[in-house]
Amino acid sequence: MQGTLTRWLQLRPEDVRKLWIMLPIFYFSGIAESLNYTGFMALFNQRFGVQYLPYIYILEAAIMPLEGWLLAKLANRLPKARLMATLYLLMLGVLLVNGLVLLGFKLGSVDFHYYYPLLFLSSNFVVRQLTLLLWSTAFDLCPTQQAKKLMPIFIASTTIGGITAGLIAHFIGRLFGTEAVYALAPVLMVFGFLFFRKALARYLVPLTLKEDKRPKAELLVSDETQHSAAYYAKQMLRSPFLLSAVTLMTLMPAVYFMNEYQYFTAAESRFPKEGDLTSFYGLITAIQFMICLLLQTVANRLMNWLGASNLLLVIAILFLGGFSLTALFLHHPLGLVMVSGSYAVFYILLYYIAEPCFQLFFKMMPISKRDGYRYFAQGVAASGGILIGSLVSLLHSFGLIRLDTLAWAGFTAAALLVAIAWFGKNLYIKELVKSVQSLHTDISDVAAAFIGGMRSSKALSSVLVYLKHPNDYVRELALEMIGNAKDSAFLPHLLGMVNEASSRIRIAVLRAMNLQGASVQELVQVAAFLEDEDPEVRAVCVQLISKATHLKSQSYFFIRVKLLDTHPRVVHEGVKALYLLESEESYAACDEAIIKMLDNGGEWAVYGCQTVADLQLVTYADWVVSLLEDHRPAVKVAAAHCIGKLQHVQAIPLLLGMVPLADQELRKAILGALADMGQAGLAALLDQMNHANPFIWNVVVSALAELLPEHQLRTELVDRCVSRMLASTQERELPAALHSLGMSGLAELAEQRCGELHNALVSGAWAVMTKLADERVVASLREAMLDESEEVRENAQEVLAEGLGDRKLAFALLELLKMDSGNEQKGHEAPADVLQAARSWSDGWLKDFADYALSSLERAHMKNDRKFLTMLDKVIFLKQVSLFSDLSVDELGLIAGIAKEEVHEDLTYLLRRGERNSTMYLIVEGHVELSNETGEGETGTIGVLGPKQAFGETTALDGSVSSITAQVIFDEVCVLALQGESFSRLVRLYPEIGIGLLHASSARVRLLESMLLKMA
């Protein structure tokens, strides 16, 4: 059952884990909040008097600014997680104290009449702040995409809690009294707090490790940059749109409070007994949240279909209808049903539908001022709405008007609400145009959410006006909104924009077009874009024409020609379009075009791989695999991506073999390709789980973390990761052992390899951890572990020590990270024992280092005899050459593999000025003189190079003419010779080597320039 729901809701393991912690918080808090509300309202209305309700609301409106100020002060003094826990406990304490007082009244058969206003104010504080606390917690703990999936579930949990509370109040209130209903609220909040505390510790604390340590000075600077309330008030008075928004936000809750007063008054007169009144409140609460639960199933569709502006208009109309029914039937036997039903619906519409819609008003504002406008408007609306609703209700409390007259006053206010909603909707488009210049990157999504499907002819015509606006961003926005409408009626207007000067606008015009139902003549006009000078315009036009399936033959004619286009992207779109049109007669031509793209190489090959991947043309798999050896990085990346999309599992060993020397982009592409292999590649990846190379191991583990379900991650991956990580703690002994034996060069190389192994292991462990814990938490912890502040790092380690994700993996990762922070093991075993143990380790390089060291000890008596350099000798030597000091051990091994040891006699010429050179030399032993001719035709010495210095690198890569002469002096010289052709191939295949060479060559050029200046 859970698996079916998970698949249906498209939930990831991380989402499910978060739900198990968060759902009880919303469920228990939803019950507690509703029981609290039902209990204190029943007690206040019955024992103090519903006629005093407006006075209390006015007092509450006056208190709310002070409440906000005190909470803001508290927020500035406490870390985020502690603040939220403190607020929860504060509200729990308020309910607990009130519950004990009420139970004391009941058990002692006493009553204190003036306690109930205090009960009302304190309990309503909990209602307000608990809701805000829960939603802010959810938004803080869930990133945007996760929130879209989980928030409806959280709302459903709260709603079910409300239904549960209504049923509890209905039965408990009648049997045990209202005090028992109220006293249950803090008990259920205790259950919620157990999960709330766990959620904060697991998700919020790691996310705020760095924010909580932000310097006070920084907070003061940020406060100084904020605008005053007077600034926002002036700006709102100058903007009709903002005025309409604030008026709507104020008037809607005012109308609601008028209806709420009618509901409580009518219910109190019908049910004079307190137990019966509480039971009735509970029944209405249950019905209310049932309506909410049903409404939530269609709320998102309604928002997408109608848009926020139309939804607010519909809510205003429903308010109007509810008050009219209440006014007409108030003195009828159905009067209580009408007013109670209106109240139940109004509550849901205001707090669960209207509130999210109101937030879209402020998306129009610049992001730096958005929160200022939002909080100022919400403060004005909250206080103003309560005051207006309460003051109008006071007219009935004073006996100046009847209850049905109050209903007609509400009807009038609701009519005004409808007018403002309509007026604000029409102002929106004008405001959108004003804001678009600074917010063009995200404003179109806001416009679509606010206006909805744009089915209103008036709204559509108002958008058409802006197609001729001088600002390109405004026209782009108008075109995007027209495109969202998917209405072919716009086609004639868009065809008139064919000759637009801006290619960006022409592309937007094409994307806004809908060719469904277009005539042949209109298709011909659109096809004019196929000859546009901008290849992107031509490509978008091909995409568009392919959608005119009702004119298949004509579309085929236009697109077929573009297979001969001069730009690969257009050809790529043409091939895809012909396959989309299912034009079988053109498949042969498509094959020719694909072959041309793959064969041309470069950008053509990149688009060729993309075409093969998009169309799943597995027959080209072997050809794409051959492109992995292309010397251009972009082609290799595209080929790797394509192989993954084709799920060509036979290429997995080849892809993994490229990992050690791949740059970051290619390594990312290989990882993506392995993940795209899906279940087909699992067997091959599991076979590589114990690979000796740390980079390959890292990629394999990261890919498996993407592919395996959580239970397999824990059973098949975690233990292997932990054992590999624990083994690496022993490997740190090797550099210390080599140092103690006096092999400093080898020790330096071993230390570098251990560092590479360490980083790969840590990265792989984080990849697995990301799938076992919240992704944002893991990212925050990784960042905190690298923070400059020791306190932040220690706090991050403390979070990890709690067993984040998986306890075994977290502990092993913590040990590695502690080693990285400087607490690494220094070596307590005998060096010879460490070397013997290292010969059985998994990493090939560390085994080679140990073998080399042991062999050196055995032949120590022969160390004065002349011998040829071994492969490892070359690697050790290359590491000490500044030209290659930044390369990885694997890269050094590649260079050592093509380096040839040569010994030359004294006075031998290795380079001659004016002759072509294809070899780069690295001096192992001896000296070489560099010379050049002076202006008078004489030979002058530039300098003398010794061991670990290079020459000939500037001409070796391209075989150009040498500008200097290099001659052996002072006895024979031993060099490593790198042939230009082999070295050039390495640089092309592995860009990191080329980057290292570029840095070192720059230093060599500066050195030679210095020598020349000294000679001058």
UniProtKB/TrEMBL annotation:
Q: Which residues form the Cyclic nucleotide-binding domain?
A: 883-987
InterPro entries the UniProt entry points to: ARM-like, ARM-type_fold, cNMP-bd_dom, cNMP-bd_dom_sf, MFS_trans_sf, RmlC-like_jellyroll
Bilayer-crossing regions: 21-43, 55-75, 87-108, 114-138, 150-173, 179-196, 241-259, 279-299, 311-330, 336-354, 375-399, 405-424
- Report if keyword Membrane is assigned: yes
Q: Which domain of life is it from?
A: Bacteria
Task: Supply the SMART domains for this chain.
Answer: cNMP
State the signal peptide span: none
Keywords for this entry? Activator, Membrane, Transmembrane, Transmembrane helix
Asked if the keyword Cytoplasm belongs to this entry, the reply reads no
Task: Give the protein's recorded name.
Answer: HEAT repeat domain-containing protein
Native source organism of the sequence: Paenibacillus aestuarii
